[in-house]
Amino acid sequence: MKITFLGTGTSQGVPVICCPCNICQSPDPRDNRLRTSVWIETETTSIVIDAGPDFRQQMLRYGIRKLDAIVFTHSHKDHIAGLDDVRAYNYFMEQPMDVFATLETQQALKREYAYIFENAHYPGVPQINLHTITAHEPFLIKELTITPIRLLHYQMEVLGFRIGDFTYITDANEIPTEELDKIYGSNYLVLNALRREKHISHFTLAEAIDIAKAIHPGATYFTHISHQLGLHEEVEKELPPSMHLAYDGLTLQS
Protein backbone atom coordinates (compact mmCIF):
# COMPACT_ATOMS: atom_id res chain seq x y z
CA MET A 1 0.00 0.00 0.00
CA LYS A 2 1.39 3.37 -1.04
CA ILE A 3 0.42 6.57 0.77
CA THR A 4 0.96 10.00 -0.82
CA PHE A 5 0.41 13.28 1.00
CA LEU A 6 -1.52 15.39 -1.52
CA GLY A 7 -1.73 18.36 0.85
CA THR A 8 -0.39 19.07 4.34
CA GLY A 9 -1.59 22.62 4.95
CA THR A 10 -4.30 24.10 7.09
CA SER A 11 -7.52 25.69 5.84
CA GLN A 12 -5.77 28.68 4.24
CA GLY A 13 -2.91 26.66 2.81
CA VAL A 14 0.68 27.89 2.78
CA PRO A 15 1.55 30.45 1.54
CA VAL A 16 -1.37 32.43 2.93
CA ILE A 17 -2.79 35.07 0.60
CA CYS A 18 -1.11 38.48 1.19
CA CYS A 19 1.18 37.16 3.96
CA PRO A 20 4.76 38.52 3.86
CA CYS A 21 6.18 36.18 6.57
CA ASN A 22 9.35 34.18 5.88
CA ILE A 23 7.42 30.90 5.82
CA CYS A 24 4.98 32.09 3.17
CA GLN A 25 7.89 33.55 1.16
CA SER A 26 10.10 30.46 1.60
CA PRO A 27 11.75 29.05 -1.54
CA ASP A 28 11.70 25.55 0.03
CA PRO A 29 8.94 23.57 -1.75
CA ARG A 30 8.24 21.73 1.52
CA ASP A 31 6.88 25.02 2.91
CA ASN A 32 4.32 25.25 0.11
CA ARG A 33 1.29 23.34 1.40
CA LEU A 34 -2.02 22.63 -0.30
CA ARG A 35 -5.09 21.84 1.80
CA THR A 36 -4.89 18.55 3.69
CA SER A 37 -5.58 15.31 1.81
CA VAL A 38 -3.97 11.91 1.38
CA TRP A 39 -4.03 9.37 -1.47
CA ILE A 40 -3.94 5.64 -0.74
CA GLU A 41 -3.30 3.19 -3.55
CA THR A 42 -2.80 -0.53 -3.92
CA GLU A 43 -2.46 -2.63 -7.06
CA THR A 44 -6.25 -2.64 -7.42
CA THR A 45 -7.63 0.29 -5.42
CA SER A 46 -7.21 4.07 -5.36
CA ILE A 47 -8.90 6.30 -2.76
CA VAL A 48 -8.42 9.76 -1.30
CA ILE A 49 -9.28 10.96 2.18
CA ASP A 50 -10.92 14.40 1.85
CA ALA A 51 -11.36 16.50 -1.27
CA GLY A 52 -10.81 20.14 -0.42
CA PRO A 53 -10.46 23.31 -2.53
CA ASP A 54 -7.21 22.03 -4.08
CA PHE A 55 -8.65 18.67 -5.17
CA ARG A 56 -8.43 19.39 -8.92
CA GLN A 57 -4.87 20.67 -8.65
CA GLN A 58 -3.86 17.66 -6.55
CA MET A 59 -5.36 15.15 -8.98
CA LEU A 60 -3.50 16.79 -11.87
CA ARG A 61 -0.23 17.25 -9.95
CA TYR A 62 -0.01 13.57 -9.01
CA GLY A 63 -1.53 12.15 -12.18
CA ILE A 64 -4.40 10.35 -10.44
CA ARG A 65 -6.33 8.95 -13.39
CA LYS A 66 -8.14 6.24 -11.46
CA LEU A 67 -10.10 7.02 -8.29
CA ASP A 68 -12.43 4.47 -6.75
CA ALA A 69 -13.71 6.46 -3.77
CA ILE A 70 -13.49 9.57 -1.64
CA VAL A 71 -13.67 9.20 2.14
CA PHE A 72 -14.51 12.29 4.19
CA THR A 73 -13.30 13.00 7.71
CA HIS A 74 -15.81 15.80 8.31
CA SER A 75 -17.77 18.59 6.66
CA HIS A 76 -15.57 21.67 6.92
CA LYS A 77 -15.09 23.51 3.65
CA ASP A 78 -11.35 22.89 3.39
CA HIS A 79 -12.15 19.16 3.29
CA ILE A 80 -15.19 19.02 0.98
CA ALA A 81 -14.89 21.97 -1.43
CA GLY A 82 -13.54 19.96 -4.36
CA LEU A 83 -16.35 17.46 -4.78
CA ASP A 84 -17.69 18.96 -8.01
CA ASP A 85 -14.52 17.94 -9.84
CA VAL A 86 -15.40 14.25 -9.64
CA ARG A 87 -17.21 14.92 -12.93
CA ALA A 88 -13.98 14.13 -14.78
CA TYR A 89 -13.83 10.70 -13.15
CA ASN A 90 -17.50 10.10 -13.95
CA TYR A 91 -16.70 10.74 -17.60
CA PHE A 92 -13.45 8.82 -18.00
CA MET A 93 -14.25 5.93 -15.64
CA GLU A 94 -17.87 5.81 -16.85
CA GLN A 95 -19.33 5.36 -13.38
CA PRO A 96 -20.51 7.34 -10.35
CA MET A 97 -17.99 8.21 -7.65
CA ASP A 98 -18.38 6.30 -4.38
CA VAL A 99 -18.37 8.75 -1.46
CA PHE A 100 -18.11 7.55 2.14
CA ALA A 101 -19.27 9.96 4.86
CA THR A 102 -21.22 10.16 8.10
CA LEU A 103 -24.84 11.32 8.00
CA GLU A 104 -23.72 14.69 9.41
CA THR A 105 -21.19 15.17 6.63
CA GLN A 106 -23.74 14.03 4.05
CA GLN A 107 -26.08 16.78 5.24
CA ALA A 108 -23.37 19.34 4.54
CA LEU A 109 -22.66 17.84 1.12
CA LYS A 110 -26.34 17.99 0.22
CA ARG A 111 -26.49 21.60 1.38
CA GLU A 112 -23.30 22.73 -0.37
CA TYR A 113 -23.99 20.74 -3.54
CA ALA A 114 -27.77 20.85 -3.72
CA TYR A 115 -27.63 20.79 -7.51
CA ILE A 116 -25.99 17.34 -7.40
CA PHE A 117 -28.62 15.72 -5.24
CA GLU A 118 -31.71 17.62 -6.41
CA ASN A 119 -30.96 17.32 -10.13
CA ALA A 120 -29.13 14.00 -10.31
CA HIS A 121 -30.07 13.41 -13.95
CA TYR A 122 -29.23 16.90 -15.25
CA PRO A 123 -26.50 16.64 -17.91
CA GLY A 124 -23.04 17.31 -16.50
CA VAL A 125 -23.98 17.11 -12.82
CA PRO A 126 -21.53 15.00 -10.79
CA GLN A 127 -22.70 11.42 -10.32
CA ILE A 128 -22.22 10.20 -6.77
CA ASN A 129 -23.06 7.09 -4.76
CA LEU A 130 -23.29 8.02 -1.08
CA HIS A 131 -22.31 5.43 1.52
CA THR A 132 -23.04 6.03 5.19
CA ILE A 133 -20.28 5.34 7.68
CA THR A 134 -20.19 5.66 11.46
CA ALA A 135 -17.46 5.89 14.07
CA HIS A 136 -18.33 2.45 15.38
CA GLU A 137 -18.12 0.15 12.38
CA PRO A 138 -15.29 -0.72 9.97
CA PHE A 139 -16.18 -0.62 6.28
CA LEU A 140 -14.76 -1.97 3.05
CA ILE A 141 -13.63 -0.29 -0.14
CA LYS A 142 -12.73 -3.21 -2.38
CA GLU A 143 -10.02 -5.10 -0.46
CA LEU A 144 -9.29 -2.27 1.99
CA THR A 145 -10.75 -2.58 5.49
CA ILE A 146 -11.07 0.91 6.97
CA THR A 147 -11.58 1.40 10.70
CA PRO A 148 -13.02 4.80 11.69
CA ILE A 149 -11.65 6.54 14.79
CA ARG A 150 -13.92 8.95 16.65
CA LEU A 151 -12.22 12.27 17.37
CA LEU A 152 -13.19 15.68 18.70
CA HIS A 153 -12.53 18.86 16.71
CA TYR A 154 -13.50 21.22 19.55
CA GLN A 155 -17.18 20.20 20.03
CA MET A 156 -17.53 18.59 16.61
CA GLU A 157 -17.18 14.85 16.17
CA VAL A 158 -14.92 14.00 13.23
CA LEU A 159 -13.33 10.81 11.98
CA GLY A 160 -9.81 9.54 11.64
CA PHE A 161 -9.11 6.26 9.87
CA ARG A 162 -6.89 3.22 10.24
CA ILE A 163 -6.07 1.13 7.19
CA GLY A 164 -3.76 -1.77 7.94
CA ASP A 165 -0.82 -0.38 9.89
CA PHE A 166 -1.48 3.21 8.75
CA THR A 167 -3.49 5.63 10.94
CA TYR A 168 -4.59 9.04 9.69
CA ILE A 169 -5.84 11.77 12.05
CA THR A 170 -6.42 15.37 11.05
CA ASP A 171 -8.48 18.27 12.44
CA ALA A 172 -8.64 17.04 16.01
CA ASN A 173 -7.78 18.31 19.46
CA GLU A 174 -8.87 15.25 21.44
CA ILE A 175 -8.73 11.49 21.01
CA PRO A 176 -11.19 9.81 23.40
CA THR A 177 -9.49 7.20 25.56
CA GLU A 178 -11.69 4.39 24.26
CA GLU A 179 -10.53 5.10 20.69
CA LEU A 180 -6.82 4.70 21.44
CA ASP A 181 -6.97 0.92 21.12
CA LYS A 182 -7.73 1.40 17.42
CA ILE A 183 -4.43 3.25 16.98
CA TYR A 184 -1.95 1.19 19.00
CA GLY A 185 0.31 -0.96 16.87
CA SER A 186 0.33 1.42 13.91
CA ASN A 187 3.56 1.50 11.96
CA TYR A 188 2.70 4.94 10.58
CA LEU A 189 0.71 7.54 12.52
CA VAL A 190 -0.33 10.83 10.93
CA LEU A 191 -1.43 13.59 13.32
CA ASN A 192 -2.43 17.20 12.83
CA ALA A 193 -0.04 19.72 14.37
CA LEU A 194 -1.32 23.17 13.53
CA ARG A 195 1.11 25.50 15.31
CA ARG A 196 2.97 25.99 18.59
CA GLU A 197 0.37 28.17 20.33
CA LYS A 198 -2.73 26.63 21.92
CA HIS A 199 -5.70 26.31 19.57
CA ILE A 200 -9.36 25.68 20.31
CA SER A 201 -9.80 22.80 17.85
CA HIS A 202 -6.40 21.50 16.73
CA PHE A 203 -3.46 19.81 18.39
CA THR A 204 -0.40 21.97 18.84
CA LEU A 205 2.98 20.57 17.87
CA ALA A 206 3.80 19.79 21.51
CA GLU A 207 0.45 18.06 22.05
CA ALA A 208 0.90 15.98 18.91
CA ILE A 209 4.41 14.98 20.00
CA ASP A 210 3.09 13.87 23.41
CA ILE A 211 0.39 11.75 21.77
CA ALA A 212 2.91 10.14 19.45
CA LYS A 213 5.17 9.32 22.41
CA ALA A 214 2.25 7.68 24.23
CA ILE A 215 1.13 5.63 21.22
CA HIS A 216 4.69 4.84 20.10
CA PRO A 217 4.13 3.98 16.44
CA GLY A 218 6.97 3.05 14.12
CA ALA A 219 7.02 6.60 12.74
CA THR A 220 4.86 9.71 13.11
CA TYR A 221 4.20 12.38 10.48
CA PHE A 222 2.57 15.70 11.31
CA THR A 223 0.12 17.35 8.92
CA HIS A 224 -2.48 20.17 8.71
CA ILE A 225 0.35 22.63 9.30
CA SER A 226 -0.06 26.40 9.31
CA HIS A 227 2.51 29.04 8.43
CA GLN A 228 2.64 29.83 12.16
CA LEU A 229 4.50 26.60 12.91
CA GLY A 230 7.73 27.68 11.23
CA LEU A 231 10.04 26.68 8.41
CA HIS A 232 9.99 22.99 7.57
CA GLU A 233 13.76 22.61 7.71
CA GLU A 234 14.05 24.25 11.13
CA VAL A 235 11.07 22.50 12.78
CA GLU A 236 12.19 19.11 11.45
CA LYS A 237 15.48 19.46 13.34
CA GLU A 238 13.61 19.95 16.64
CA LEU A 239 11.55 16.78 16.44
CA PRO A 240 12.24 13.61 18.43
CA PRO A 241 13.54 10.52 16.59
CA SER A 242 10.99 8.83 14.29
CA MET A 243 8.85 12.01 14.14
CA HIS A 244 8.70 14.20 11.04
CA LEU A 245 6.80 17.00 9.38
CA ALA A 246 4.93 15.68 6.38
CA TYR A 247 5.08 17.70 3.18
CA ASP A 248 3.16 17.71 -0.09
CA GLY A 249 4.31 14.84 -2.27
CA LEU A 250 5.82 12.76 0.52
CA THR A 251 5.18 9.05 -0.03
CA LEU A 252 5.17 6.14 2.42
CA GLN A 253 5.10 2.44 1.68
CA SER A 254 3.05 0.37 4.09
Question: Explain this structure to me?
Answer:
The protein is α/β, with parallel strands linked by helices and 254 residues long. The chain has helices at residues 55-61, 77-80, 87-93, 103-112, 114-118, 205-215, 232-238, and strands spanning 2-7, 37-41, 46-49, 69-71, 97-101, 128-132, 139-141, 144-153, 156-163, 166-168, 188-192, 219-223, 243-245, 251-253. The radius of gyration is 17 Å and the shape is globular.
Condensed summary:
By secondary structure, the protein is an alpha/beta fold. 20% of the residues lie in helices and 27% in strands. It starts with a strand and ends with a strand.
Largest sheet: 7 strands, mixed
Low-confidence stretches: none
Spatially, the strands of the biggest sheet line up as 6-5-4-3-2-1-14
Mean pLDDT: 97
- Helical content, roughly? 10-25%
Q: What is the number of E strands?
A: 14
Spell out the key features of this protein.
254 residues; alpha/beta; seven-stranded mixed sheet; 14 strands; 7 helices; globular; single chain
